[in-house]
Amino acid sequence: MSQGHYLAALFEPRSVALVGASERADKVGGRVLENLRSGGYGGALFAVNPKYAAVRGVPCVPSVDRLPEPVDLAVIATPPATVPGIVERCGRRGIRAAIVITAGFSEAGPEGARLEGELLAAARAHGVRVMGPNCIGLMRPPIGLNATFARGQGIAGALALVSQSGAVCTAMLDWASSNGVGFSSVISLGGSTDLDFGEVVDYLSVDEKTEHILLYIEGVRDGRRLVSSLRAAARIKPVILMKVGRHPAGSRAAVSHTGAIVGKDDVFDAVVRRTGAVRVRSMADLVGAAQALASHVRPSGDRLAVITNGGGPGVMAADWAADLGMELATLAPATVEALRRVLPANWSHGNPIDLIGDAGPERYRAAVGACLADPGVDGIVAVLTPQAMTQPEESARAVAEAAQGAAKPVIAAWMGESSVEAARVELRKAGLPVFRGPEMAVETFAHLAQFYRNQRALLEAPGPLAHRDPPDLQAAHALVGRALDAGRTQLSGPESKALLEAFRIPVARTLSAPDPEAAVRAAREVGFPVVMKIDSPDVTHKSDVGGVRLAIPDAEAVRAAFADIVAGVAARKPSARIAGVTVEPLVARPHGRELMVGVARDAIFGPAISFGAGGIAVEVLRDRTVALPPLNAILVADMIRGTRVARVLGEFRNLPAADRGALEAVLLHISEMACELPELEEVDINPLIADEDGAIAVDARVVLRAAPAQRTKYAHLAILPYPGELQATLRLPGGEWVKIRPIRPEDAAMEQAFVEGLSRETSRLRFQSSLTSLTPSMLARFTQIDYDREMALVAVREEGGVEREIAVCRYITLPDGRSCEYAIVIADEWQGRGLGRRMMAALIDVARARGLKTMIGWVLAGNAPMLRLCAELGFVSAPDEDPYTRRMELALDAAPAAR
Asked: What is the DSSP string of 207-253?
């Protein structure tokens, strides 16, 4: 049981007032009014315009103040200068949601930006949530609400579209109407002055009318909120998004190798991978994905079978799959035998499955059926080209019948136009995605297969620190603090390597030398032969200015190299500040592979980790993957696997395999550094030499920034780490020891067993019903939590080396961002032992530390033990609409109750 959603006034309004209503159809206010009248909306409708007593049969009042009754939603289509005042009057009248269709705000220059600031200030001061400005409005076809100036009415369905571009909304509506695709919502965010993607996606994730979410994104304001909302939504509903602006003309100048090759688009791709969503690159892909989602396509992997009646289209499909990084499925021997029995002797005997040009419906039916039964096939693309003996409609029906009820996706590509159009209609009626060519069909499957892969990444919940070989955080913080206190934002070479050493990353020992004799002493200390490099905060790429000398054999050569390096750099870059040189031993690794590892801070999403090929040509090769911290072994392995250089890390010609474990350890330690040091701006390790004996950082550069003020320790991260610091071992009054820790995704089986072991009475008190087991979606929701917005603490006992859950308590932050709703359940045999009190106290501490103000829960009136526990913890009983339920509320900013 929970409160109504705070955006219900916007998405489920019982009444709407159009401010700026007009009789003229060529005016925005006239078009919106006509859409509101003709959409089938069943709520009360009012027009606001001082010129009219009524507008097209809708009662009209001169101002918002004169509305005859409280209204949920105001739609504003008046000149920009009037909008802030109207929003203020809406708030005073009790209207809690507004859609500002009017343009002419920040996109129009300084004066528009000033008005937008006034609009936002009025909304915040009077509790009005605003969609827009400069948007086409909002459409909710299931309730008949069309508060837009778009042409036509959307079909009711389960697809939600959220877009910053009104043009994208109208284009998608036009496509959908001709393809029979329905929407739960079409949401035009426009300028996103107040409501942004994060809050809207949060609403859609719990909206019962929405099954799939499409996003068109031009810019993001709150990266942490977007990531959190996407991760929450994608756990229960497919989310597909298109992000434009992939190659911004104004990209910043590179200050390091990492900064040079890690762009905003790389970071956004990394965001999508960790949220469980899927990113597409074009409107055509977005339309294709929408068609597939509307057809309830769900892949379980990325192994594709292609069925065709023409060799050429089959090759086209196979080539496109290879371009997208997918391999065609290898058919099982039983599948090949089944096909051999029904196909002519000259069929392809492999994948793509060429049915031969005279293929009729029965061949298509048999091939689809055989592939669906093959455990090595995750999806099918069926292609038909119209030939002399082809039966397009009959073959379409055969494919549809074979695919009916299948757990694997079947996507069709019926090539041609007039001769196959009726067949495409048949396929669409059967709920199968159908395209005009094999490439689009294959690409659609690739996007949905990516959804499957990203869902696996979503399950990973790494902690900020590895369990083994913990870093020396005290030394790291001291080193960073000294540099910043001295007004420096760049560490010297030796300092950079010392920071890496604090995080257990092997480095080549490096000493600073301000003069030739100091360089000689340093060389003798580290051992000849040595490498000398310019020591200057103004030189990033040392080789570019002649600032590196290798394999220097003796003291005299060191003196000569010092003079040569300093003079050369001074000549090539006169403005550079030169502190001398650094001296380090020559790292002789004949089997070494040059790699690059780095951290670059994104302004929206925080630190991002990069890995790829290293050396002086790193910017040219651009072979890298990017991921968001925190990382674990699985995510690190995915990073390495995503690069071309990964192919030469194994045995290669005469080279033994590189130590993959040592390389993975470096990436895990870099993740720790990104998590623990919010002061990091950039880290550049290039080269990192990896061979059969391990990995060593030969050169490193670290750039800092002033430490930002953070409400919580990891606020600089887009993804909150697993909060391992909350783990505790408790001794109960009876002497039993119990471990309490945050829940993990891998606890799903343990959680299911816990619920199944509850008595009917305990289950009724917790779930208000006699729940005997959790559905897959409930299980995912309970165990795959976002630690940024919710917390679940489980109490476990180890039995035979396996953990058994004996209790769980949880809270989830409510949409207002200030309060949370809690729940707790204790296994029957552990009730009455003080466990519930200890767990609730721990949960309250977490909620208070996260800045939440109120904890709320609903307890059945007959649950005397829970009501007593709440009273002891300081909860206050408040009236509730349900006489059989008590609403319990705790002010978290008050003094804690005695425990």
From this structure: -TT-SEEEEEES--S-HHHHHHHHHHHHTTS-EEEEE--SS-TTPPP
Kindly report the backbone phi and psi dihedral angles of residue 438, in degrees, each rounded to the nearest multiple of 5, phi listed first: -70, -30
Which band of pLDDT confidence, cut at 50, 70 and 90, is reported for residue 250? very low
Instruction: For residue 368, give both structure tokens.
Output: 């689809």
Exposed/middle/buried for residue 666 (C-beta within 10 Å: 0-12, 13-18, 19+): buried
Q: Please, what is the Cα angle at 637 between 646 and 589, to 5 degrees?
A: 45
* Superfamily designation of domain 292-458: Succinyl-CoA synthetase domains (3.40.50.261)
Please state, in angstroms and rounded to a whole number, the distance separating the CA atoms of residues 662 and 595: 13
Number of other residues whose CB lies within 10 A of the CB of residue 655: 16
CA distance 438 to 94: 55
* Encoded tokens for 409: 């996706």
CB 221 within 8 A of CB 189: no
Residue appearing with tokens 């590892």: 597
Averaged pLDDT of the chain? 89
Summarised one tens digit per residue, pLDDT across range 447-502 is 888 887 787 777 777 878 766 788 999 999 999 999 999 999 999 889 999 999 99
Q: Where are the domains of the chain?
A: 292-458, 724-891
**pTM assigned to the model:** 0.82
Locus of tokens 């996260």: 850
Q: Which two tokens stand for residue 790?
A: 């919710």
Is the pLDDT score of 769 beyond 70?
Answer: no
How many angstroms separate the CA atoms of 239 and 293, rounded?
9
What's the pLDDT score for residue 518? 96
Taking a C-beta distance cutoff of 8 angstroms, is the pair 380, 411 a contact? Answer: yes
For 816-827, write each residue's pLDDT tens digit: 778 999 999 999
If we measure between CA atoms, which residue out of 583, 616, 627, 625 comes closest to residue 687? Answer: 616
Confidence (pLDDT) at 587:
86
pLDDT of residue 221: 84
Distance separating alpha carbons of residues 836 and 856, to the nearest angstrom: 16
Q: Which amino acid is present at 269?
A: D
CATH code assigned to 724-891 = 3.40.630.30
| Residue 379 to residue 358: CA distance in whole angstroms | 24
Would you place residue 897 in the very low, low, confident or very high pLDDT band (cuts 50, 70, 90)? low
pLDDT over 90 at 21, yes or no: yes
Q: In which residue are the tokens 């996007």 written?
A: 447
CB 678 within 8 A of CB 707: yes
